[in-house]
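Quick one: co-fold with cytidine-5'-monophosphate.
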Amino acid sequence: MDLSGKQLLLGLTGGIACYKSAELTRLLTQAGATVQITMTEAATKFITPVTMQALSGRPVYISQFDARIDNNMPHIDLSRCKDAIVIAPASADFIAKLATGLCDDLLSMLSVARDCPLLVVPAMNCQMWQNPATQRNVAQLRADDIIVLGPDTGLQACGEIGNGRMLEPKAVYEAIIALFQPKKLVGQRILITAGATFEPIDPVRGITNRSSGKMGFALARAAAQAGARVHLIAGLVGLATPWSVTRENVQTAQQMYDAVMAAIAGIDIFIGVAAVTDWRVAQVSDHKLKKAAGQPPPPLHFVENPDILASVAALPTPPYCVGFAAESGELGINGEAKRRRKNVPLLIGNLGPKTFGKDGNEVILFDEAGSTPLPRADKQSLARTLVDEIAQRVLGNFLYKLG
Ligand code: C5P
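Sure, here it is.
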């Protein structure tokens, strides 16, 4: 069974969609999971604890004070030894609590005290969902690596039509199974560079490249979810660190080079996603360069930065190296030429100006066998596909070495 041996905690908060969680509980238990139900007081107005106890086969917990728990600390006791906590339905109020870390009842306390992944399945009126406060809170949950599933669009219990319906029980169930999929990169140590580097001109100015860091961070997250130990070296990036990833921040290309070389020993796979500034200003002014009437702009002289990817690929025993290339045209020719020039087994090319800062991306893989375009996808789904592609190639190399 797909969920054999899995220990899940299913939390219900106040909303008419509580009826869907009755069906979800059945699906999960039938797939082999042990499901511990916890409800907020408001949830008990929509569905009875008796129903949820009967379906889960276990007592339901509601209060943060409960003598049935030996040490009377249900928020610790219930949040430990779980494979995942799922909040379904999650009300706007509960999402707001999670976003701020507020914990004034058992379910919010054990969510904050957890040491396992948290999945949140929103359910609310469409106006409540669209409310900027809710949207801010949901963005915060995602930034905190809480998995948000849904909501769906359609007819709501209140009679209005819009976005805010809780996902159907089967969809939530499928998402929970996906969480436990095989870890393709388990045991692999991966070093990833992401984001843009920045080269100062003077204390207030500098040059940089266009890069949000989204693709590199998505890859770090996907690799960590696939079981790898991921070390992420980030340039100028305003993104939260993915779950279980070790992050180091740098500014200049030279600092990124130094950080990579300091971390490279023992690394199995190096993925250079960073948009590294090719040149730096030869003489950085230690005071702000001033405009003066009638004077021409100051001349800037550049020197070349080290090529981090090519340097790693040229090490005596290099890790499996993956490069990225953002081209503005002729991707087919430029991608393969760059792969050969940097001497890496795999290069992932895209048309940069089409994807900068966006959530979607469309890439072509270049390797010894030729080029393979991948269909357009959001960066996180694409990252999962790329992790699969990299895992296949690394495993192939490993078997080749064994042979
Ligand atoms: O030459 P170009 O910048 O297009 O190459 C892109 C690839 O090389 C990316 O993987 C990028 O992270 C890496 N790179 C690097 N060091 C540089 C320039 C690029 O590691 N100085």
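If it helps, The chain has two domains: 7-179, 189-280+300-402.
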